[in-house]
Amino acid sequence: MPKGSEKLTRARKEEIVNACASLYETMGFKEITMRDIGARTSFTRTAIYNYFQTKEEIFLALLQREHEAWIADLEAIAQQPAALSAEAFADQLAATLEKRSCMLKLMSMNLYDIEGSSRLENLVAFKRTYAGALHAVCRCLEACFPAMAEEDVQAFLYALFPFLFGVYPYTSHTEKQRAAMELAHVPFTPHSIYTLTKPFIAAMLRPFARA
């Protein structure tokens, strides 16, 4: 780690992650290089290696930041003064996920490569944040569905999170993929993250909603 203030270190890491996020909006994970990321920062490309050893570590930091933002939204749901109906809760939770398309894209398409090429200490930091997201969802359920037993909460988590790892490909298709589906006569109905996740969440929680 280079010499300098902790504030400068945080600022430079944030700038690097922002550059990566911007590139990821229009380029594929495999296309993006450290050179590309460095070209979008205000300091030399080689200086990036003082903060991240691989591009995968930068993506891991981006994924961690996405989870932190999601946790903040989940905490806002958990702090509401009254229990919600299954539909109202599903609406709010689905809305938080609609904002996290980058998170869902990384989880479904690039997670193994990112984790495999990141140092253990960085991976541990991310896993702690991921665990924080699990706990935040639990707090939401405890606040909004007090009738749920512990095993019900665990069953919800084991349904929701695997679902989230696969939802992004159903909401984003390239022109080539659409052409292939048309030629293969595969029915295609456009969906957003929100429209897929809301009914799924509501259906799981209706048995526990207050009358």
Overview of the molecule:
With 211 residues, the chain is mainly α. It is built from ten helices and no strands. It has helices at 6-24, 34-39, 55-78, 86-98, 101-109, 111-116, 120-144, 150-167, 175-183, 193-205. Helix 3 (55-78) runs parallel beside helix 7 (120-144), helix 4 packs antiparallel against helix 10 and helix 5 (101-109) crosses helix 8 (150-167).
Number of helices: 10
> CATH-wise, what's the superfamily of the largest domain?
Tetracycline Repressor, domain 2
Approximate strand percentage:
under 5%
Nearest-integer average pLDDT: 94
- Segments where pLDDT lies below 50 for 5+ residues? none
- The CATH class of the largest domain, by name, is Mainly Alpha
Largest sheet data: none
Counting DSSP E segments of at least 2 residues, the number of strands comes to 0
Q: How much helix, percentage-wise, in residues?
A: 55-70%
Task: Give the structural class.
Answer: mainly alpha
Tell me which oligomeric state these chains represent. Answer: single chain
Which CATH architecture of the largest domain would you pick? Answer: Orthogonal Bundle
CATH fold field value of the largest domain: Tetracycline Repressor, domain 2
Distance between the termini: 56 Å
- Number of structural domains: 2
Order of helices and strands: HHHHHHHHHH
